[in-house]
Amino acid sequence: MRKNLQVVFDTVLRRNPGQPEFHQAVHEVFESLGPVFAQHPEYIEGAILDRIIEPERQIIFRVPWIDDAGRVRVNRGYRVEFNSALGPYKGGLRFHPTVYSGIIKFLGFEQVFKNSLTGLAMGGGKGGADFDPHGKSDNEVMRFSQSFMTELSRHIGQYTDVPAGDIGVGGREIGYMFGQYKRLTNRFEAGVLTGKGLTWGGSLVRTEATGYGLVHFVCEMLKMKDQEIDGKTIAISGSGNVAIFAIEKAQQLGGKPITISDSSGYVVDRDGIDLDLLKRVKLEERGRVADYAALRPGAHFVSGGSVWDVPVQIALPCATQNEINREQAATLVKNGVQLVAEGANMPSTPEAIVTFQDAGVLFGPAKAANAGGVATSGLEMQQNAARDSWTFDHAATRLEQIMHDIHSSCLEAADRYGSPGDYQLGANAAGFVKVADAMLDQGVV
Question: Residues 294-301: contacts with CB within 8 Å, 24+ apart?
Fold first, then answer.
C-alpha cells in the first residue's frame, strides 16, 4: 500500500476501533488504488481519500416495541449515509442480531462503489437493526418495523436517501415500513423505498435481480475464456433470495447447482437442486435446508464442515461476509474450481482472494458481481419517478445490459491501471474514479 494510502488507512483504524469488517472493506479498496493515484494526483490534492472514508452522516437510534406477550423490547437502529456525490444515498436495511455500526459502515462503504459501477444516479448508504425477525410473529415484525420507521422517516426521502431490503428485510418488512412512512408523512412517496409490492410501486425482477445479475456476470467472465455455464457444476451457499434466483438463472442457462446452505449446515444434491421444492421450503414455509433434504430423495444434509468442501467448477458464495477463508479457498482450488463470483457482500477473506488469484481462478468481487440487486432498485426508482411500470422482460433485459456494462467497466479499468484481467482492481478503480471525479466537481463538502 502506498505511503499516502497507508496514512489514511491508519486514520481509519484510529477513528473506528473494534470494527474489523469496515477496516477490511477499506483495506481491500485501498490495495487497488496505487495505480489510480499515480495517474490522478488531483485526488491527493483534493484529499479525496480523507473525505471518502468518512460517512457524510451516521445515525444511531433506539427502537422500542412491544412483543405479543405485552413486554417492552428495545433494539438499536442504524443508518449510515456514506456518500451522495452521484445521487441520493441508496442501500439496504439489514435486520439481524449481528448488526452493529462496523457491519453497517462496511456495507455502506462497499455500496458507494457498487452503486457507482451500475452507471445509475445513486450514492451509497446502509442501515438496519440488531433485531432478529426469525421466530417473530407477523404482528411483532410489524410493530418493530413501524417503530424503526418512526425514527428513520426523519432522515430519508426519494431525493435524499432510498433504503431497500437486505438480510432479514423482505417484502413483508418493506411493506410495514412503507405504510408507516406514508402514515407519518401523509405522502404516497413511492420512491422512498425499493423492494415494494408489485401492486403499489414495486418492480418486476427486483426479487430475482441479485441472483440473476450474479449469473449474468459469471457468464460474461466465462466468455472471456471462450467458455459457457452450460454443463458446469456449481456450489452455492445460502438459501435466501440471492441463492434461490442464482440457482434459477443458472439452471435456465444449463448450469447445475448442487448445493445450498443455511446456519444449520449444507445440502448436497448431486442430481441438481430441485428449485420448486427449495422455493416451497424457504419462501412459503420459511423452513431450513435440512427440511429440503428430508423431502428430496438423494439429497444429503451435512450439519458440520463446509459447503466449500464439495468439488465443483464454479463457486458462488451467497450467504454472508467472510464465509470463505484461506483454508476453504485452498480446498476449492485443490478440487478444481475454475471461477468464484461473490453473491453476498465481502464473503471471501483477503487471504482467500489471494489464494484464488495465485491459483489463476477467475474471481468476481461482490461490488461488481452482486450489483444486480441495487441496479434493479435503481430501475424501480426510475419507474416510480415516471409513475410507470415495466414488463418482466423489459426489466430483465435492462438488468442483463447493466451487468454486461459493469463487466466491461471492470476489464477496461484493469487494463487502464496496469492489471489486465484483474476484476478486483478493475471494480475498485472504476467505482472509485467516478465517485472521486464527482466529489472534485462539487467542491469541499
Answer: 296/267, 296/269, 298/269, 298/270, 298/271, 299/267, 299/268, 299/269, 300/267, 300/268, 300/269, 301/265, 301/266, 301/267
